[in-house]
Amino acid sequence: MKKFMYAALIGVSSIGILTACGGQDEAQSTDRKGEITAAKEANDSTAVQHEEPNENTVCAFCNMKVYTKEEEMGKFTAKLVKADGETLFFDDIGCMLNYERDMEVKNNKKYVRDYKTYDWVEMNEATVVKADIQTPMKYGFAFFKDKTEAESYVKENTNLHAALSNWEQVEKMALERYNMKKMKQDADGNDGHTHGNNHMN
């Protein structure tokens, strides 16, 4: 009889221990789920909320029309987000680079459109392609989020002399345009900033 009662007591104790362990595991699992959910919410809250140009938006550098995502030429639109959160739009990549140069603004985030999807891509993360294509300011650069897409475009458009390029080449062309504009303004006796002037080819 004593042996039976002892065995029963051990059984009850074991059940209690197992129940406690199960409860602890469940609590830890709940905590982990809570941490994952909190991290996801934090990531969602810090996701970039991209502003878009509208039909009345003009380039912050040259005052020409900025094309929207719904328009074919909108694939060449660029934008700059200043440190204070202000967003400026540009009709072509060179205008954005020359605005930044002209106004000496720093700590900006710069974006270009993916040539295929028209989605915004951080400038330095985009693959650059140079081709004989019509862009708003005749720079002739297209940008791709995916390098393989850029390589495919180059292979499929040899008739456009498409070739992989880089940001140094984009910057070089923009600077050449900028210097030409400054020389013309100096000759005309205009010492002001270049932004907001006429279309610069």
TrEMBL record:
InterPro entries per UniProt: N2O_reductase_NosL
SUPFAM superfamilies in the record: NosL/MerB-like
Pfam families: NosL (PF05573)
PANTHER family membership: HTH-TYPE TRANSCRIPTIONAL REPRESSOR YCNK (PTHR41247)
Protein name as it appears in the record: NosL protein
Organism name: Paranoxybacillus vitaminiphilus
